[in-house]
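Holo model, cobalt (II) ion. Inputs:
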Amino acid sequence: MKKLLLLLPVAALFALSGVAFAGQGEVSEKEVRRAVLVVSFGTSMPEARHAIDSLVDEARRAFPDAEVRLAYTSNIIRRKILKEENLFIPTPLEALAKLQDDGFTHVYVQPTHIIPGEEYEDLGRVVTALASIPGKFGFEKIVLGAPLLADEGDCADLAAILHRTYGDRLGKDRAVVFMGHGSPHSANAFYSQMALCLEKVSDRFFLGTVEGFPSFDDMVRHLEKSGVRRVTLVPLMIVAGDHARNDMADGDDPESWLSQLKEKGYRVDAVISGLGENSEVRALFLKHLKALVD
Ligand code: CO
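Output:
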């Protein structure tokens, strides 16, 4: 009671001076203004961009009180879109500078990357650097969200989603082969973990990567042992862009996975749909974003 009486005049003072009294002795002079920055590698294909834009739309619906904006990390893609479509998409650093200038105090950066690899680390360095700026040109809070695959639970969740989505393409004679990107970064190990999680939900699920381990040949070794003759190719990438359309599914290119598997005698079809087009995968990203904001 004594304590309350002592606090009351203090609270009244703050109220009079127009300073918000946030309780627990925490006094904030600035109004809290929240923003979410969705950061993607980007894609130059307008038909594939839908996957990223859907995530931005859903983030807006999930956080109606926050400003939600988008940035791309690929300069090549950003410049191509600007030139061909006159559409400007900022880099993360540009977008964050604008959010700072627009008066946002709390910023949640959510990447759409699959693994915490090189791109993710580059973004992390930007966030860390900006978080170290005090005063007028800094944010009160700026944090980085987890990529799609940040732990074992994420791998299991994604495997379950993929089983729900592509389970009907599995059978005694049928398999699904996922094409990941792959990276020389140590976080590439997530693809091996993902391959094991996929194997756990179906022994007809296989995973290879374009630029890392397991390679196409590694994947084929497992596929051959299964004895299946029909294969569906699916990109394990956020957007079905250049890699999915060309390296994976281009029937006219003898180097594509589709052509190489056909050459080995498989009956092959391909799904041209990025993970970002799957609402359950987007929900996984939103789960990571929610964990960040809460
Ligand atoms: Co690539």
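The longest helix spans residues 46-62. The chain is about 45% helix and 15% strand.
Archived with the compound record.
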